[in-house]
Structures are given as structure tokens and as C-alpha cells.
Amino acid sequence: MRSIRIILLISLTQLRVIVRSRATVLFMLVPGIVLYTIFTSIFSGAAGRPFRVAVIDLDQTEASARLVTMLRANNVKVITHEGEDPEMPLLTPDSAREAIYHEGLFRVALVIPRGYSTSPTVMSGENHHGVDLIYDESQPLEAEIVSGMVQMAAGRALFEQLGGALNFGIKPSTEENASTAEPGGATDASAAVADSKPRRLIDVHTVGVAKSGMPNAAKNSFLAAIVPMFILFGASGASRGMLESLRRGEIRRMLAAPIGTVHILSGQMVTALVVSFAQCYVMYLYAWLVFQVAIWDITTGLLTLTLATCISATALGMLMASFCKTGEQLDAVSSMIILAMSAIGGSMVPRFVMPLFMQKLGLFTINGWAYDGFMALIRHDGLAGILWPCVVLLAAAAAFMTIATIIFSKRLAEKPAM
Amino acid sequence: MAVLEVRNLKKSYGGTRAVDGISFSIEAGEVVGLLGPNGAGKSTTIDIIATILQPDEGEVVIHGDITSRRSDYKYHLGYVPQEISLNEKLTAQENLRFVGRLYDFHGDDLRQRVEESLRSVGLIDRARDVVATFSGGMKRRLNIAAALVHRPDVVLMDEPTVGVDPHARAYIFDIVERLAEEGRAILYTTHYMEEAQRLCGRTAIIDRGRIVAVGTLEELINLVKARRIVTLKADGLSNENVAALAHRLGDVGWSIENSSAMLSLNDGRGGLVEVLQAAHEEGLRITGAGIHEPTLENVFLELTGHALRD
After folding, report:
1. Is the pLDDT reported for residue A311 higher than 70?
2. Among the partner residues B54, B71, B77, nearest to A256 by beta-carbon distance
3. Which of A252, A258, A412 sits opposite B81 (nearest CB)?
4. If phi over 0 gives left and psi between -120 and 50 gives alpha, with beta otherwise, what is residue A282?
5. What is the pTM of this model?
6. Complex ipTM
């Protein structure tokens, strides 16, 4: 009985301490709500958001039209004209390739070849040609999802063609019908689509779009997604160190020396920058050694983009620390902000599955710009491809750092016993 | 000429005035104490002198013409913060080297200064040990050494003995005295009367942001020399019954220290007998009583109306 009383005493006392700090209570309760809102918006929105797929119907038959109709019914936004403008010419395989590479209006294009109607499914015999799927090699996952949607659309089309009389159960493929990827264009992603030997109704030949061959596209994109989140957590840890320095009085002693607040914050930031930069390159080297990610083809761009991302992340870390009085508060705030940014920015969930407004929100995150920059690099867009992401990241860093300096200076002037 | 002159400093936080027109000066080789309870404005005053805080009004001048706006001002000041502001993962030597570099010292000059500072606080043998392995007293000494690397003329010490044992405290007293002998001007804040009595040539009594008296120990005690202090021990002493007793004696100053009531009487207001009579009438059961000459503690009580550790 006494033990229970003691346990309750300890627990209640600790709860009383927690409840007395409104900030602590707030930071305990809010992150869950914020993250729930974000993930709900991503996934509940996905169901209502059409995938944007360009369709080039070279067959122009009732069968091909049926396939397109079924795609539309399958939550696909079909784009048929250049610039998504009915006044503009119809898309061709070449213009779709160009659009995927340069415009970004869509990242996947379905080409229904001439003669498709003669054998629309693998069950139609050896004449089956299937369809081509042109996709952005840096986004292999989206191609795989659309490929699955094409299978479903083909099934529905067949069902409709047979007037609903047949239960079209998808049959296993035969070796003769196995698809072969186009030479020079196939990647591991297309191979994944082709080699997985799904129970398929229609052959989907995937053709990647990139300046040159892009091995390990999926691994590249995962690295692009993970690294910014990792940098943000590292920066948060470093800024916690600064709060500890404040608490210990090290910063007060420094302020009595012939240096300014800007020197102190910048010094802390450079430390965080070096650490996060080193962490990134350890990850890159690991990705290169173990997963053969081609980091050496993009050395200058990767260095530049990593530097810009690290500067932005560490400046954000300083900003977060400037708002927090204790390490515990910073932990709660930074966890919430980093997880939210990672979710919205595409580190946890690919942005293409998100509703359009969430995709736009991604542009307000470090993760989003870092990811886009990295993908531009591995698409071999060169330094021009990362110019805008780097400018945005550095501008954000300048803004974060300015605000952090103002807040810290104010705090140091107002709170003599920090 | 005074090495450090503090002129009419004022500083408020929101609506609260932390420092309210403080002025004093310190000569070379002099230790001036700022004596007052927690929250009296001692640390804020030191922080303003150290330029960590900006005053709302007033100025600080070193050697007559070096104001805090001048770039060389900070090179004349050594600041010993109340916190042990050292990096515990670095060695004693590394901590001091870091501080020395903030003041632009390098190479042999820096090495020499670091050694000198460590020697002055008796830590030269522990130079290469990480601070985390130091005792509390050693950390306090190193905290002082960090303020000496650039050989300042003025040393600001903000309660440098907080949390140390009597032995370590005595060691720190020796360091302070040696620094004064070397000709440095020292501002020493404390809320321990004994420290002020032992170390400070002059003491400024500070309360609610104002200096209420400043002088040598003798001068301060002379302010209340005409008084006698009666100490009473009684069962059930409380603020209420001691206040009532003080009122009965003609609103004399009073405080309760270590379970004893202290009453500050004018010479002309009777003596121990009158106090015992009044206590009896208040219903107090006296278990002990004494009368003695005023101390700095009594001076503080007399000047501020409350005890140093209230």
C-alpha cells in the first residue's frame, strides 16, 4: 500500500511540474495534432486527387478510347494536348518526352500504339503489342503506380467490351508474352515493372526519360528524400547545444569578450554546418559503396546543393532555438517542425501522391527544395537545375539567421539570469 | 584616479526597475563589494559594466576616458560570471586558450598567459585535465582564471563563491586578495556579509536597485553606531509577534535570523531590561537574550528595513 502511495506521489508531483509549464503542455499536445492533420490531408486527399498522365492515342479506335475512358474512371487526369491547352497540338511521344523533361506538367505519358485494338490484352494472342509508358526516371515509383492503373483500366475495358458477361479474372502471363524493355531506355525501375511478372492483362513497356542512363533511380530518390530530414535532425541537435551553452553561461562570458552576438551565433552555426555536412557525405559515400548511387557524376552540384541545404537547415535550427527557453522545449518544437516538413516536403511520402495544395505546400519546406534540387542533379540537369533550389534555400537561411539573431539579442538583453 | 567609474546607471525590465541610479568608483588595488540580497540588482549592475546588458541611462568609464562604446573597453575588463561558464569536456588549458583567443592572443603569448592564469589560481598541475573531473571549488577557480587570461585592469566577480565548501572559499579569498595586491580594481558581488567584511576595502550596500550606503566597514558601522542590537531567543517566535514587539518598542528595526529575533535599538530607547519587559507583555517566553555592537548585517537591516537573506 505504501509503495503505491509513493509511486502515486512521485507521479503526481511530476505531473504537477509538467502542468505548471504551459509551454511544455502545449508542445506535448500540439505535435500529434499537427502531424495527424498533415498525414490525413496527404492520404485522404490522395483518393480524390487524379494522377496526371499524358495519353497519346496513336490507335484512335474504340478499344483505345475505352482504355482511356477507364483510365479516367480510375482517378487519372488525362492530358492530351501540349501545355494542357485544347488549342495547342495533340501530344506526340516526342513532345511528351520533352514535356516530362522540361515542363513538369506530368511525369508519366501513356502511348497507345497503332494496332492496339487488334490485340488489347495478353489473352488476345501473340499479336498483343501492349502500351508504352514514358516516365521521369527520377520518379520511378509514380511510373509503377500508373502502370498498375493501366492494368486496372485494361481489365475494366475488357469487362465492358464483354458486356459484363465475363468475370475477367486476371490470368498469369506466359513467357512468350513477357515484355522486354526498350533498349537504352530501360532502368531498374522499368525492370522492376517488367521483371516482377505480375498477373497482368496488358504489357506495359516503360521508357525512362533522362539525359543519360540513370541507374538506381529509386535509390537516388530515397537518398534525396532521407538526407534533408537527416540534416534537419542534426541541425536541431546542434542548436540544442547552443541552448546548453546559454544555460551554462558560456555565452554570457563570450558576450563580455570583444565579440558580438552575430559572431557567437555564426560560430555555433558553422559548427552545426560542418557536422551536418560531414554526416551528409558519410551517407553519400555509404550510398555509393553499398547501393551504387552515382555521386561522382554530380560532384560539384552535389557539393553546392548539400552546402545550401545544410546552411538552410542549421539556420532553421538556430531560429528554433531562439524561440525556445529549454532543451526540452526545443526537442518538442523541432521534432514537430522536422516531421511536418519531412512529411510535406516529400521525405516520408512522395509528393506526387499528395493533393495539389499539399504539393505546393512542399515548396515551403527545406526538404522539398533539397529533394527537387537533388533530383535535378541526378537527372543530369547540371548546376542550372539546382540554381533555383539553392537560391531559395540560401534566402531562407538568411531570413532564419536574421530573425534568430534579433531574437537572441533581445533575449540576452532582457534576461540577465538566462 | 579611479580605474572604474560607474555613473548613474539605470536599467528596467518591463515595469520593474532593476538598477536605479547606481554610481560608484574603484581605485587600482581596491576591492569594492556590492552587498545585497538576491534580486537587489548586483548581477544586473555587473552585467551592464561587462556590456552584456545595455543600460537605459548612465555610463561606465575606465581610466577616465574609455567608455563602453570604445573598442578597447572590453580588453580592460575581466568577467567572472556567477555560473561556471566552462566547457566541461575540454581541459583547463583548452578552456583558457579559447577565452584567450577571443581576446586576440595567439602563439607563445597566449601560452604564457594561460600558464600564468592557471598558476594564479593554483591549477597549473591540472592544466591538461578535462574540467569534468574537477571538484566544484576547482571549477570556481578555473572560472576566475578564465577572466584573467587577458590581464585586465578591472575584474568583475559575480558571487564567485556560490556553492563551494569553506576550504575552497578561503582559497578563492586568497586569489582575490592577490589580484588586488597586483593592482587590479575588483568589483565583488556577494550576499554573504562575511565575504564583504573579509575582502572589501569598501562595500556598497545595494537594495532594490539602489545603493543605500557605501564606505569602509568602519564607516558603515558608524552609520548605526548609536544603536545597540538586542538578540532574543524565545519559544514560538514568528514574524507577527516580533513585529508586534518592535512596534511596542517604538517601531524599531527587526529581523529574525537563525530562530533569533534581532531588534535594533536607539541608545536613548532603553536597554535589555525594557526589551525583556516588552517581550513578556507580548506573551513571549524568553529562553535567551543578549546585546551586542552592530555588524554589517545590522547595518543592512537598519538601512533597508529587512535582513540580508530575506
Report:
1. yes
2. B77
3. A252
4. alpha
5. 0.69
6. 0.78
